């Protein structure tokens, strides 16, 4: 088996159907399987998969166990040389799977790769290529320097100074489309389930790089991310989980290397941003999480 496509669904029936149709429409001579872990959807997502895509290996959870845990359930059943984490609100191009697998086969030092991810309006989804959220890059973002100078190193987190169509080694790609070697998973372990619905992709990439593997942004093909469908109406819980993931990542990978003052500043900044986003949400009709 060449590839195992792992998808976590939660009340995204229509988007999931679209996603699966594009996966099965792929032009490729290789072998692949699809594993869907449904997190207790109440919109008939699991029933739709069972009825319309009988070849999918379906996992039915009775409740929402979180993105990382559900993906780990799917990965545990994966039989491919590669695993692809794919969001249910992503449309893959007909050549996406073939081109990415061909690239990985030709670059054995690469442990993790992601392709170009665009929004429905054609604009780049900035999260598809990132640096780690170090104290410095976080400061540039929180102070607005990354927005004021998008073509400078102040924009190190979202790497907006890099051409969109340039292959580049990065710190992290996004979990909406993340291809990883099975041998890398065997070495670094599964996703950290401390992350409920955000941050697990950056953590995985951090661990892969720490183990000597390259993480690559490979815009030789592109997919469309209907961002927001997987978490349609962002609640205060989702806002909390997003900022809590930032705190978990920092505590896990950076806190031991910095002094009390820096750690205090970072923690204060994370949770000040959380309360600011709650305030913004309360004044807007459409709720959101700004990544």
From TrEMBL:
SUPFAM superfamilies: Nucleotide-diphospho-sugar transferases. Residues 4-125, 160-227 form the Glycosyltransferase 2-like domain. InterPro entries: Glyco_trans_2-like, Nucleotide-diphossugar_trans. CDD domains: GT_2_like_c. It holds the Pfam family Glycos_transf_2. It comes from the Bacteria. This is Glycosyltransferase 2-like domain-containing protein.
